[in-house]
Amino acid sequence: MSTVTQASLFAGRNLRRFFRAPPALIYSFAFPVLLLLTQYAVFGRIVGDGDRQHYLERLAPLVVLSTAAFGSPSSAVGFLRDLTGGLVDRLRVMPVRPGALLVGRLTGDVLRIVLIGVLTTAVAMLLGFRFRQGAAAVVGFFAVLALFGAMWAAIALWRGSGPGDEESLPPSLTGPATLLFIFSSGFVPVSAFPSVVQPLVRANPFSTATEALVGLSSGGPVLAPVLQTLAWVLGLGGVCLLVAVRRFARRTAR
Amino acid sequence: MTVASPPAAGPARQFAVLAARNLRQARVGRSIGLTVVFPLTFFAGFMVVFHRLMADYGIAYEQFLPPAIVVQTTVLVAMSACYMVAGDARSGLISRYRTLPMGAAVVPAARLVVDAARAAVAVAVILVAAVVVGFRFTAGAAGAVGFVLLAIGFAVVLAAGCAALGLGARDPEQAYSALTLPYLVLTTVSTAFVPVDAFPGWLQPVVRVSPFSAQVDALRALSTEGADQRVWPALVWLLVLGLLFGFAAARSFRRTR
């Protein structure tokens, strides 16, 4: 069996596990939808300067992206359970390439994130969110989401393979994710922040990815924010993945 | 052969032992991070993000936001009680308690008194941070005392409801994450973060009747003008929810195997 087949088997396993746990499933879909609806209702008037649709153009991309970040705790715990629950030990006596599990996790996570992202986008469209840049831009929109999702999947692999237990892992990811969400240009415009923190807000991966998605839906600059997001994905995501691969290799070599 | 049984501990001693155990449980778990660090971070973040926008809207956010953060904190204290109670129910500790010669009220009392103490600490930390950024009690000491008591009362009432849920839950993680969605909706669809006129018109009646709006508005009244008619809705909600959740908690406690 080729590595690709093995990896797709693991990706399928992760997706099936995701769909077969109804409480977690409902939560995964309901959370971004409720986040979108509540933030739209609560801050639309004040942040959009009286125009809720104007706020929605930026909020919807941000919430779509947040599905990647807020799904990472359960993904990290899932990987931790693979490592400590005997799955990896079992695989060592089978003709399976160890890397297939990692690739499968990464792919499964990205597919799940894009799926939830599509649903959240559909709800945003019911509120009035629109793609105005053509079909290619729609593909680009979800491609950027997939890239951003790959970064958070790599972060989850890094956290799940590292020190920490099932209780300490989730807050260590949701805390920073919440802060990045709030301090992003999708939540409120950069100009509303104190000038000292504005450079940080601009550099926030949530901001760069939001700007890219805004450009690909409502319109605006695309190339620069996409390249900035790519730098985050390759830089941060790459380092996390390398560390995770090394830890994983050490475990499977024993 | 008979073994002399040690003298039975009185209810006060039983309570002290259980309360001390619950405090230790709260200290080693994630509850400090969740009930103190998270609200403080959230407070700082919201001050930075919304201070300028709210000033443009005519609201001094350093006076407007702290009561909302206090309510958010008391909700988080109650939610962590759910997590801890669910853990105790699953590990069999609650069942073990039932086999012991203890008064029926000792276990719930030790739970709620410790939750009140945790709420008091968390509220105190938030208030110190709030005063640092410019929050003031302009209605004097009586208003401040009323503010703290109302906040703790709300935490205890919600903790009773969360404990009822936790006793019936099979998995602490699941019980806790089941609470995060109502938490998100109820805290945001209220006057906590923006005034009622910032909501879409059709949603404003919902915002007005929310118990969270009542609580936040009462705390705002107690910190500015003092006890006025804005405190009554909060007290009514406290009574109604207290009866409802108290009944629910007593019922699930009796049913726990």
Automatic annotation (TrEMBL), chain A:
Q: Which residues cross the membrane?
A: 24-47, 110-129, 136-158, 230-249
Residue ranges annotated for the ABC transmembrane type-2 domain, each copy included:
23-251
What Pfam families does this protein's entry cite?
ABC2_membrane
**Keywords, A to Z?**
Antibiotic resistance, Cell membrane, Membrane, Transmembrane, Transmembrane helix, Transport
- Gene Ontology MF, one: ABC-type transporter activity
Family affiliation: Belongs to the ABC-2 integral membrane protein family.
Matches recorded under PANTHER family: NODULATION PROTEIN J
Q: What name is this protein filed under?
A: Transport permease protein
Lineage from the top down? Bacteria, Bacillati, Actinomycetota, Actinomycetes, Micromonosporales
UniProtKB/TrEMBL annotation, chain B:
Keywords per UniProt: Antibiotic resistance, Cell membrane, Membrane, Transmembrane, Transmembrane helix, Transport
Q: How does it sit in the membrane?
A: Multi-pass membrane protein
Gene Ontology cellular-component annotations: ATP-binding cassette (ABC) transporter complex
Per its record, what are the GO molecular function terms? ABC-type transporter activity
User: Any keyword Cell membrane?
Assistant: yes
User: Which locations, inside or outside the cell, does it occupy?
Assistant: Cell membrane; Membrane
Q: Which residues form the signal peptide?
A: none
Stored InterPro entries? ABC2_TM, ABC2_TM_bact-type, ABC_2_transport, Nod_factor_ABC_transporter
Highest taxon, organism lineage: Bacteria
What residue intervals traverse the membrane?
31-52, 64-86, 119-139, 145-169, 181-203, 231-250
Task: Give the UniProt family note.
Answer: Belongs to the ABC-2 integral membrane protein family.
Under which name does UniProt file this protein? Transport permease protein
Q: Which organism is it from?
A: Micromonospora humi
